[in-house]
Fold this protein.
Amino acid sequence: MRYRPLAQTGLQVSEVGFGVWTVTAGWWGEYTDEQAGALMRRALDLGVTYFDTADTYGDGRGETLLAEAIAGRRDEVVIGTKFGYDPAGQTGPRGQRELPQDWSPGFVRRACEQSLRRLNTDRIDCWQLHNPKMDAIERDDLWQTLDDLRREGKVLSYGVALGPRIGWREEGLRALHERRVPNIQIIHNLLEQEPGNDLIAAARETGASVIVRVPHSSGLLEGHFTEDTTFPEGDHRRHRPRSWLTEGVKKIEHLRFLEAGGRRTLGQAALKWLLAEPLIASVLPNIYDAAQLEEFTVAPSTPDLMPEELRRCDELYASNFGLAGVAG
């Protein structure tokens, strides 16, 4: 494993982090507490130090399971978690629509205290607004509350985790330029580079760190799917348009050169492509079994992508991998 600085924190984070949503959100299969905890502990043993969760993953289960997994090793770990959603304000069936958000100072303080309790810690290293919209970016009392919590030592740093779908370009740009957030979390990968390219350019201007989720485009860039692949009940990819899979598989074939004669897997190459950008502090692949954990945690030590490989990737993306239509 290799490590990079997280801007304005004095902390180093592992280049490959662990996204707790995979084992607690139910989108990638069901995990018992024991299975989830064992995978996180194994990640820590393999050198993973950045763990990213949220107060809504499993209605807080993501934070409590993380606390149990790192018990006795808190100082080895950098904890990222998120806030902003208010499950109490949900109307209608759970899971049918995005939860309402609450950015009021009182709600934000309660969310912080509840996360600290579930995480069994005295500080949150990286606290992120969870999928903020423009109303949150423009709200002065929210940012004043975050500054207060940082001065109180309950939050070491804060930032924005943009989503839930790929997008939110303007929110990210304003958070970086006007709120001067020290870190942003974005969706970004070889197949999905907008608005990530613009947000990375803005982070370069402001000195912010970038954390990347969905680095494998929901599994496509792991290189194992075919046009006949089917997904089980409960897997969110089951609800995507079939064209996402069929077109994605065709694009992947153009990227097989990145396997470099067996010196790295395509899944490792997808992470190395991201880590070629110095601003990216950590990437968060979906890790759902021990074999995949082993593959991705050794990715930093595989050969760096050569300039000609990076250039070829740029050309393929610009031409939409030879498929009809435009890139992005």
Notes: The chain has a mean pLDDT of 92. DSSP finds twelve helices and ten strands in the chain. The beta strands are 3-6, 11-14, 18-19, 50-52, 78-83, 124-130, 155-161, 183-187, 209-213, 280-284. The first helix runs from residue 21 to 24.
